Each structure stands twice: as structure tokens, then as C-alpha cells.
């Protein structure tokens, strides 16, 4: 049962079926029932197994002469044909019960039947589908959706979101507000899809999140906003990303960091599926500094230990030149992780690990100097070691455990990668500085911590948010003086902050990722009905696709063909 | 109260306020409370009125010397500044109660206060806002959102949608499935926005509805699907349309027309706001033919009578030549409507009506021949007459009445406007023919009725749907033989129908229109947080906007400037 027991769906309202295929029990014996479903399996004109989204029911085909037309109909129907059957629920003969099947005590003796739609020969057997290439499964997504796994995933997703809505809307007075997806480019929005308008040269942009709108709603006195928001990000080809994705988007007025954290803990606890066991709140919290120091990453997987240890003092006495060298730098440290039962490792795994780290035999893993990069290397090493240990049979990370973790006190700004003397926002320019670091903003902005918080689940970032800047002067200072950006493009937001904007903050949860982790699915594609391939293509309907030059005319655009293609077209 | 009384929001969870500004009553007297809100009004340093989304509370400013800093703070804060006040709830002095104000029995005597954000001088008074031009209101939408009307509209919308979800998801086992908005162009999809991809010449398209996906979900065995779906339609400039809009999108397997109708009646009854009075079900139903004959439109407003009457027999005896002429045609009829108390009309209104119809004085309204066009003219006349009668003080259409109506048995195909010898789908090519008219499909498709149904409320179409074609052969026949369309672009759907597609049908309700009718708002812009202008512009953030040629490069497109602009740029 996916839902608390007080919720009772009526799956047979408004249709002619009396029951679903997962419903009948011995208590129904003697009842006349009508079922609709797909033929999963049929044997020698004797019986068949009927399937719908709820389960399987065994159907006995009548053998007497008077019903020969029914027998003929059902015996000749290909598997995956859709049928209606009407008949009497009966106990299975003693010894023929199937305890593995929820409906395994009964069978339905058919009286009348109808083939609603016949299925043409499948390009593969449904039950082998999971073994087929993902490209083939995505091309025939509508067949893959019939699998009990995808049925379960999509239904669980729907129900978790419904529970979240109940919590936000019914219990805590949040307002579900839809915000536009046709907006304009945000500064630095290089990953935003463009949508040409009918005004020559003017484009809408599909926003990466409703960030500006939710802040404007707070200025508008909406007080508590949420939206299950479709967001867009054009990242080209990146594994396990989707060009469109969904976030649980939340914003509140008059709230502080702790308030948002308690809200989210309550939200997850309330919507958590019973069958995954309870989760405990409040979630533990670490600072960004601590996370990097202990785990070498800002999204630590805390289901296992193997923390990074500072062994600078020990190393000083070793007399190894490159270690001494590293320690002589201002922030020089030597750190290590201990791989428990590492020797458990077979020869092959050991050498894999050695290879992954480009280690020489007999080396000891010591990484030094430049604390940030050093730690992230050790952090990756930690996770890779865990993968290898588990591949070798050790259970380090309980697959049924859910370790939530808040990561807080991020830096507000980071040096730009391409030019480290300039600063960029670690998250986005609307993030408020940490109240204790306000004066540093004007003296040494690199040292300012932010009021940003990330939510991490089993080593995956599943959410992030912040308390926002509500003071126009401060916002302008950050944009113009620290980030050296043209604030003109955000003038509507700066204006809004001057007209009595309340203090506010919020968060967004990545729904696709969260659901896939709850289910234990390997990819977010497993919790999306019609996902795109990692190149952003729809393999079922072949999108994106070519359009005619005439269709582009009303949008005042034309294709700039790459030289090679243009040449080819010419010849 | 917008919601049934069993739903109790906690508006003060996770924040430091103890109450909202609409909550305090005499039962709270003596309590120490903390409120957050905007200064609505302040008088001579004596008191102020604090406002939030829930209401207003009178705040008494302390006058004693010890609190002079609090007095100074609150007296100097401009209206629409955001403040926190903490103080004691007290009864108002006898005679000073305000029975019009829900909190009118009490006031809060401030002990401490804090200005959270000061408001700069407003470009207009908030209370005069409604009188300002709509363009100005849309530019400062975040200020307009503070009005009690927009707060009410957006909150009611949120709660109605939440109730719809409860009905569909919790009571009837529907699955909320998100479908892609980046897809490919559908045949004839001239109104679909394009989204350039990073593959040269290839474009996504923003779909006008999830039609294909919801049918594919049925093929995938999802059985019952719904989605509050964002849809897109590029219609250029049309009044009271939005380039993006929302529909309650529903699809079911194994259902017939009656099943969908009962579902929707139940849905509306369940989600209907108590304060609008009950609605009765089932809704009445008329055929398309009857609607045209009686009301001259396929979306009749049945709140008032004034039906169109066939006066052919009477007219035959009149001996007027053009009437005789009209009656001599095969489908020639003469029809009329009677305007009750039409003489109530003042001279001015009479002449307006005369002008609207291009009538001469003393003419009698008689329209003849070509039944469809004839009726639609009389249909417009009927509504215009009602407008005029109401402008003159007569109440024809009860503004508190909600008349739902099903219109059924639409024609499946209509002659193309530009070439009447060819046919196009009256709705879309997936609509199933009426079972009684199946044979006509092959002999005389123009006579085939469809299994399409529209839901009409007070003369507005608020929904439409149909039973779909689930047979691949029939679908191919309609596409290729009747509509003469290239079915290749829909090959994925035709394939899907061959793999055991169940019989299915569905509907979509236009949420923006429905909510605006329930509220009685003049425009759908009044129930959308950030609407676009009728030219599709966002007047607050200035979208759409220009982008640099560099930004277009990765999408392999360039702007084709209209000649005049290109010339201007050259010079």
C-alpha cells in the first residue's frame, strides 16, 4: 500500500468494470465480475492471466460447446491484446492456490468476453523488455510503461507529490501559484532555452527556476508560496540530466533558515512513503567547511564513515620531500582516509583502485596542499573506494537507509574559474549574507558566508535554498560592486525591493532526483513518464525536428547552417 | 471561508508571528502577540492599521516617554513599510468597536516594534490602484498583488485546484503524470512556439496540449491520468488570451462519454467553493444541432431564455420577396428571437441595437437561408440584446447563477474555410466517430457526428473532450483518406494504437477561464499571478527581449530583420 490506510481510491468509478485485476480475494467468491485488462499469458485455450495496473487475475476459459465462440475469441487473441471478461469468481481447486499472487486464491470463470483491441506482434517480449537497450525502451516507451516497475514509480511519485501538497496547502496555508515559463533572459543565463517571438529580434527565455517570480510574490504579500514547477536547463549532453525537470518550489515571508529547515523536514516526513520506513527529524547539519574537511565534498554520503583525517603532524616526521614541501605552504596540510578492511579487497579490486588513483604499488595515499582541491580528490576517492568495497561484497551503505543532511554556511562568493581575481555568486545573486559576516561584505567579500543551505540525501544534493536579500541597497551593492554586473536587467526586482519587500527565504527540492533516490532507481529517467535521451532527444516522437523555412518566417529567424552542411546543401 | 470547515490552516507555523492580522478576536484579549505586516494607514502617531493577506488589525502606538523610540519608529515609517509589532491584545474602548472589521472588537497595544523594510514613495496610492490603467498595474504587478481582490483570486484558485486533486487522486485513483513541454511540431501546429535546439535546423515545439502524451499513457496502461498542465499557444494579439495557460487535463481507459461527464460533474461539485452556493448535477445536455437551432451558438448561455424560434410557416404568408426567396432554397428557414420587454429599451439603446444589427428603423429581424450562419447571427443578436437590456436596468442573467451545459454530437469534420471541398477535423483528428454513424464515415463523412463533448458555463466554453480513436486502422483512414494528411509525423501514435491500445477518452478544462467565471472576474488576467499583456508582453520584466547574436550562435539561428529595420541598422 503506497498511501496511508485512510485513503481509499475507487478505481472502478465511472467505468463498467466491477473490479481491478489486483483486487479479487476469496471473499469475492460467487460474485459476478467484469474485468478489463491485457492478456499477459494464455495457455492452450484453457486459461489466461489478465493484467492491469493493479495486478494479475487468472481467467478460466470455458470449455463447453455452448461457449465455443468465447473460447475461440480468447484462445486466438495475441498476448498484450486488451479484453473485457465477465464471469464468476471461484475458489481455485485445492492445491492450485498461488500464495505469491495476491489474487492467488481465486480464478474467474468467464461467461462472456470481448476483444477490445488486438495487439500486433511485439518487437520483443514484454517480460524481456528490461533487458533491452534503453534506446529501444525509450522508442517504445508506451510499452515500457506497462511494466510493474514503471507503474509503481509513476504512481508513487504522484502520491508523494499529493501528500506534499496536502502538507503545504491544507496544513500550513501555502498558496499554489503558477508562474510564467515564457520570460526574459536572466543575467548569465547561458543555459536558458530561447523562444522566438513574433517581434523581430525579440526572444522569450524558458527560466531555470521561478526564482524572481517567487520573490516578487513575497513582495506582493502572498506570504507562503509553493509550486510544483517545471524548469528548463539547456546543458547540451550531460548524463542523467533532463532539459526539462521539476522542482518543489517554496518561498516564505518572515522566515529564517531554521524555519525553512523545519518546514522541509516536516514536509518529507509527512509525504514519506510508509513502505520505506520512518525518517527521523531534525536532520543533522554540517557547515560547508566541515563537510569539505571531513568528506571532501559539499554533498557527503553519511551512510558510511571513512572520514578524511588530518595527518599533517604525523607526516612532518616522515622526511619525504614532497610532503615537507606541501606542508611548507601557508595552508599546507596532509590528509588521508582509511579504507576499512581494505585488504578484503581481492588482487583485482586493489589494482583497480590503484589504477583509479593512478597509484604505484606500495604507495600510500597522501594528498597535500591547496585545501579545497585536495579534499575533493580525497572525497571522490572515498566514494570510489566504497563502490569497490561493495563490488567486492562488503555492505558499506545500507540500501534501505536514508541519510538526510543539511549543509550550511556556504561561501557567498567564489572566484571565477576563468579569472580568479573576479567574484561570482556561489549560488545566485539574491542570496543573503550571513548576519555575522555583514561587515566583511565591504572589506573582504571572499570571506563572507551566506545564508544558503543545501539538503543532501545519501550523498546527492536534493535541494537548496537561502534567505534572500530584501534590502534594495544591499542587493544593488552585491550586483554592481561585488559582482560587477549590469543591474539594469534586474531593475524590476530592485524596484520591488524598495516598495516594502518583507524579509523572505525559500528552497527548491529536485523532485526527479528525490523520487529516484526514494525508489532506488538508477536514473531520473526511471521516474519520468517520457524522458529525453542524454542528448536531449525524444526517441519515441523524434524531437527536436526540422521545420520549414516558412514556419520560421513569422518568428523572423533563419537557420545558420554550419559551413559543411551548407556546402552539402548547395551541391 | 474558502474551504470546508474541516480544513484548518496553520498560517503561523515556522515563523515568529503568533497570529495573522485577520485572526484576533475578543477571546484573545490579554494575550501577548507578535504580528508582521504592512502599514496600511497611520494617524498622528496615535495608531496604525496593520495589514497582511488575512486582514487588518488596529495597532495602538504607545504614548509614554519610556517608549518614545517605538513611537518615533512607527510614526515615521511610510505607508506600505513592513513591520513587526509585539504587544497586548486589548478590547477597544466602548463605542469604538468596528463591526465591519472582523478584528473590530480589539486593538493591539504595542510594546516593541521593528521596521523590517521601509517603503519608498509609491507612484500612486495603493487603494486607488484599481482605478489606474491596466498597463501600470501590470508594470507594478507585485503591488497590485497586495490588493485583497487579487489575494482572494489567487488563493481561491489554489484551493479549488487542491480540491480537484483530492477528488481525482485520492478519491478516484487518478495518477498525476507530468508530460513533456519540449516536443515536436504537430501537423498543422501553426500556433506552436518553437524552441531552437543545439542541433542545427532542429527545433522543439511547445505543445498546445498534452493530447498525444495522454493517449500514449493510456496505451501504457496508466488507466487514469490527470495533470494540471501548462499549455502554449502563439496566437499573436488576441484579447483575453494568454500565450501560456493552464488546463485540467484528464484521460481514462475503458470509459464512455457518460462516464467522463459524470466524472466532471462530480469534480466540479466537489471542488466548488461553498460561498458560491451549490451546483446541481447532472448538467443538462443538448446536441450541437439543438444548440445552434435554439441559441445560434454551440456555447449557449442558458441563464436566460429568448430562444430562436422557427417562423418559416408564418413567414410564408407574408408575401415579402426576399423572405419567399430564402424559403425557396433547400434548407431555407426564417427564424426570429423575441426580446422580452424590448420596448423597455430607451431610444438610445434601441438605436444601438439597430446599429449593431445594421437594421433600418421599423425593420423586423428576420434572417434566412444557410442555417448555420443564419443561426450564429441570431445567436450574437441574442447576447447583444441581453447586454443592452441589462445596461438599461433589466436583470436577465442572474450574476450568482451558474448554468453548466453539455453540448454533444458535434460534427466530426467541417469543410475547410479556404477550400470547402476539403475536410478538416472539427476538433482534432483523434476524436472517435459516433458509433451510430460509423458507416457514414466511408460514404458521407460530412454527416458523421463525433463523440466530442463541450462543457459550457454561462455561455463560455470551459472544457472539451472526446472519446478517442483506439483502432489504428480507423485512425489511419481518418488521417490519410478523409483529412489527406501525411500520417508519417504521427507514426509513433499509430504504432502505439497497434500494440493493444485500450478504448479511452478524456477532457480538458480551461482552468483560467473557469476560475475567472467562478469569481466573476472580467478577464483571465485577474486570476493569473503574472499575466502577459494582450500582445504577449510581460510589462513588469519587459519580456520578450533582444538577445545578442552571440547568444543565438549555439542555436544556429540568426534574426531575419525586416527590410526597414535592416536598412535602419545599416545607416
UniProtKB/TrEMBL annotation, chains A, B:
Annotated GO CC locations: mitochondrion
InterPro entries in UniProt: Aa-tRNA-synt_II, aa-tRNA-synth_II, aa-tRNA-synth_II/BPL/LPL, Asp-tRNA-ligase_1, Asp-tRNA-ligase_1_N, Asp/Asn-tRNA-synth_IIb, AspRS_core, GAD-like_sf
CDD domains to which the protein is assigned, alphabetical: AspRS_core (cd00777), EcAspRS_like_N (cd04317)
PANTHER family, A to Z: ASPARTATE--TRNA LIGASE, MITOCHONDRIAL, ASPARTYL/LYSYL-TRNA SYNTHETASE
Residues in Aminoacyl-transfer RNA synthetases class-II family profile domain copies: 154-544
Record GO terms (molecular function): aspartate-tRNA ligase activity; ATP binding; nucleic acid binding
Regions crossing the membrane: none
Pfam family, one: tRNA_anti-codon
Superkingdom in the source lineage: Eukaryota
Entry protein name: Aspartyl-tRNA synthetase 2, mitochondrial
Keyword Nucleotide-binding appears in the UniProt entry: yes
UniProt keyword terms in alphabetical order: Aminoacyl-tRNA synthetase, ATP-binding, Ligase, Nucleotide-binding, Protein biosynthesis
Family per record: Belongs to the class-II aminoacyl-tRNA synthetase family. Type 1 subfamily.
GO terms, biological process: aspartyl-tRNA aminoacylation
Amino acid at each position: 500500500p503506497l498511501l496511508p490506510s485512510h485513503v481509499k481510491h475507487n478505481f472502478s468509478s465511472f467505468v463498467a468494470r466491477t473490479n481491478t485485476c489486483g483486487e479479487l480475494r476469496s471473499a469475492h467468491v460467487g460474485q459476478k465480475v467484469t474485468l478489463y485488462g491485457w492478456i499477459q499469458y494464455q495457455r492452450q485455450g484453457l486459461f489466461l492471466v489478465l493484467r492491469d495496473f493493479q495486478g494479475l487475475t487468472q481467467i478460466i476459459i470455458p470449455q463447453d460447446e455452448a461457449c465455443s465462440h468465447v473460447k475461440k475469441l480468447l484462445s486466438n487473441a495475441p498476448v498484450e491484446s486488451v479484453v473485457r471478461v465477465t464471469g464468476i469468481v471461484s475458489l481455485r481447486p485445492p492445491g492450485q492456490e498461488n500464495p505469491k499472487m495476491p489474487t492467488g486464491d481465486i480464478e474467474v470463470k468467464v461467461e462472456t468476453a470481448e476483444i477490445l483491441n488486438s495487439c500486433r506482434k511485439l518487437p520483443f517480449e514484454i517480460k524481456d523488455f528490461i533487458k533491452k537497450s534503453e534506446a529501444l525502451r525509450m522508442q517504445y516507451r508506451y510499452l515500457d510503461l506497462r511494466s510493474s516497475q514503471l507503474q509503481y514509480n509513476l504512481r508513487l511519485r504522484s502520491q508523494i507529490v499529493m501528500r506534499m501538497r496536502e502538507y503545504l496547502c491544507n496544513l500550513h496555508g501555502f498558496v499554489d501559484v503558477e508562474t510564467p515559463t515564457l520570460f526574459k533572459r536572466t543575467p548569465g543565463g547561458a543555459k536558458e532555452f530561447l523562444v522566438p517571438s513574433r517581434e523581430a529580434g525579440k526572444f522569450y527565455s524558458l527560466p531555470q527556476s521561478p526564482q524572481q517570480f517567487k520573490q516578487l510574490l513575497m513582495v506582493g504579500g502572498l506570504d507562503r508560496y509553493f509550486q510544483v514547477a517545471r524548469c528548463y536547463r539547456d546543458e547540451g549532453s550531460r548524463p542523467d540530466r533532463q532539459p526539462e525537470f521539476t522542482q518543489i518550489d517554496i518561498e516564505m515571508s518572515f522566515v529564517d533558515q531554521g524555519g525553512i529547515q523545519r518546514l522541509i523536514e516536516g514536509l518529507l516526513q509527512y509525504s514519506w512513503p510508509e513502505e520505506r520506513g520512518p525518517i527521523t527529524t531534525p536532520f543533522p547539519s554540517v557547515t560547508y567547511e566541515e563537510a569539505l574537511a571531513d568528506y571532501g565534498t559539499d554533498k557527503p554520503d553519511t551512510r558510511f564513515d571513512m572520514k578524511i583525517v588530518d595527518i599533517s603532524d604525523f607526516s612532518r616526521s616522515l622526511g619525504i620531500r614532497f610532503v615537507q614541501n606541501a606542508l611548507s605552504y601557508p595552508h599546507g596540510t596532509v590528509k588521508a582516509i582509511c579504507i576499512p578492511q581494505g585488504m578484503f579487497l581481492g588482487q583485482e579490486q586493489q589494482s583497480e583502485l590503484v589504477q583509479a588513483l593512478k597509484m604505484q604499488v606500495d604507495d600510500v595515499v597522501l594528498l597535500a596542499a591547496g585545501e579545497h582541491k585536495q579534499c575533493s580528490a580525497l572525497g571522490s576517492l572515498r566514494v570510489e573506494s566504497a563502490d569497490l568495497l561493495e563490488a567486492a561484497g562488503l555492505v558499506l551503505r545500507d540500501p534501505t537507509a536514508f541519510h538526510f543532511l543539511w549543509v550550511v554556511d556556504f561561501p557567498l562568493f567564489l572566484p571565477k574559474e576563468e579569472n580568479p581575481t573576479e567574484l561570482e555568486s556561489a549560488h545566485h545573486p539574491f542570496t543573503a549574507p550571513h548576519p555575522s559576516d555583514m561587515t566583511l561584505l565591504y572589506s573582504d567579500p571572499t570571506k563572507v558566508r551566506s545564508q544558503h543551505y543545501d539538503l543532501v540525501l545519501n550523498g546527492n544534493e536534493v535541494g537548496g535554498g537561502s534567505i534572500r536579500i530584501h534590502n534594495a541597497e544591499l542587493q544593488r551593492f552585491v550586483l554592481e560592486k561585488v559582482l560587477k554586473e549590469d543591474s539594469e536587467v534586474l531593475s524590476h526586482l530592485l524596484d520591488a525591493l524598495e516598495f516594502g519587500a518583507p524579509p523572505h527565504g525559500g528552497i527548491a527540492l529536485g523532485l526527479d532526483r528525490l523520487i529516484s533516490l526514494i525508489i532506488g532507481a538508477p536514473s531520473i529517467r526511471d521516474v519520468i513518464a517520457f524522458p529525453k535521451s542524454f542528448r536531449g532527444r525524444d526517441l519515441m516522437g523524434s524531437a527536436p525536428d526540422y521545420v520549414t523555412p516558412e514556419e520560421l518566417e513569422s518568428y523572423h529567424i533563419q537557420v545558420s547552417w554550419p559551413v559543411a552542411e551548407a556546402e552539402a546543401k548547395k551541391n
